[in-house]
Amino acid sequence: MPRPTRHVFVCSQQRPPGHPRGSCAANGASPLLQAFWGELQKRQAYEQVAITYSGCLGPCDGGPNVLVYPEAVLYQGVTPADVGEIFDSHLEKGEPVQRLLASAAAW
Ligand code: FES
């Protein structure tokens, strides 16, 4: 397997209903993860990008959260509609999508 240029972690943490921290799963992480995998397949970018689901990344209330390395860029409130832009701007050109960046307090 080639070493990817960028690695995307999509928080898919689940918690019981009513949990005080909420969860990215409750905020739509599953369709988001499917959108990332679908876009990866569409672009056949397997040698450049890796997509992995993860457990809790920390700032749960702003989820779904997405973390991209090697830049350690944290995105919050990501929806499936944002995935194409993340690929176009960040994963292919190295330019993070400013409007989705987590606040300094979150990260
Ligand atoms: S549940 Fe996703 S960051 Fe905590």
Largest sheet: spatial strand order:
2-1-3-4
Strand content: 15-25%
Could you say what the CATH topology is called?
A: Glutaredoxin
Which architecture per CATH?
3-Layer(aba) Sandwich
Instruction: State the major sheet.
Output: 4 strands, mixed
What is the CATH homology-level superfamily? Glutaredoxin
Based on Cα principal axes, name the global outline: globular
Order of helices and strands, N to C? EHEEEH
Protein model, in words:
This is (2Fe-2S) ferredoxin domain-containing protein. It comes from Ideonella dechloratans. A hairpin with a 3-residue loop joins strand 3 (66-69) and strand 4. The protein has a 4-stranded mixed β-sheet, covered by helices on one side. The longest helix has 15 residues, at 29-43. By secondary structure, the protein is of the alpha+beta class. The chain has one domain: Glutaredoxin. The termini are far apart. It has helices at 29-43, 83-91, and strands at residues 6-11, 49-54, 66-69, 73-75. It is globular, with a radius of gyration of 13 Å. The mean pLDDT is 96. It has 2 helices and 4 strands.
